[in-house]
Amino acid sequence: MAHLASDFILVTLIAGAVAMGVPEQLHLSYGHSPSQMFVMWSTDQNSTSKVFYTPAPAEQTSNWTLVQGQCWNFSYGNPDGLQMIHRVNLTGLTPGRTYTYYVESSGRITRLYNFTAMRVDSEWTPRFVFYGDMGTYSSSGPPILSNLKEEADNPETAAFFHIGDIAYDFDSDGGKNGDLFMNMIQDIAAKMPYMTTMGNHEIPYNYSHYLNRLTMPTPNNTQFWYSIDIGLIHFISYSTEIYFTSGPVSDQLAWIEQDLKAVNRSRHPWIVAFGHRPMYCSNDDSNDCSKVKSRIRTHLEPLMYKYGVDMVIQGHEHSYERLWPVYNETVTAENYIDPKAPVHIITGKAGCNEDYDFCTDPIFKSGGETFCVVWQSVAYDMNLASQMASL
Hints:
Number of strands: 23
Shape: globular
């Protein structure tokens, strides 16, 4: 780790502004501790991987810290996309401090961005954005994109969580669609940790795009499951896709139980789990969540109930739905006051690229009718939040 004066940085910025092949698809994700942040991007050639950062606001007299990372080739399932992936691991950050940074690959640079290292004080009430099933939708992105960019500029927002079916699909058009999507979210993900879990549209080529393009704080260098503490909440991410691809089911179950058993509920009284495919849904289709013997529910619901998970957030169904607290197909209460079972939320309408770009899955009403909700993309539910926050 080196420190460089800002006059050197200014010369680099001017020289790099006219260079071709500027790094693109810049995005952040939280690391294994509040003092850590991963920075990733892509280029069209093998080049250096450097991040320069300084406490914000950057001044003429600022000293910039240089951290170098790694670069690798990613071509499997990506013959026509940018094939050089860069990752730098920033460590030793001061929790709650805002930093200005940019990245450089062999003299080619990005513009300046700011990010804030995770806060750790107990007075913090963070804001989160959850959604699934977005995709590119069109060359300009889905209609919700402008709202998401506004959320990325909200100082109260701590992180974005994209719960599977990310680019629809990363590997489409030889990987160019994955490049399009990652550039589309750059104005969000270069400012804000962009946390993810895999969905069924990440399965092709043995999850190669997901595993190469994204880095999560996973145990043992896997990206199938992980957990992270933010504020008073313990978040746990799990894979639903392993139940449909002969994946490591027993390994994940053992890890989930070990993780949930270790949660300190005095420090983190809330547990929020998230995965792609829902355990329950009211959609008029034949997906797993609409079946009596749901694979996801059979494997995961007992552990969620046993260890007092408060909320489970899912996508996959192109609809928005919030359930009463439920366990074993039984509603435990018709309110959200001190629920005895998890509250399930589906928020899978952020865009998607299916059915001629009509992103909706009909939901059953009482009496057997169906109805659609269009463009309810991000799960804000003040009634639920106010009832649960008052506990």
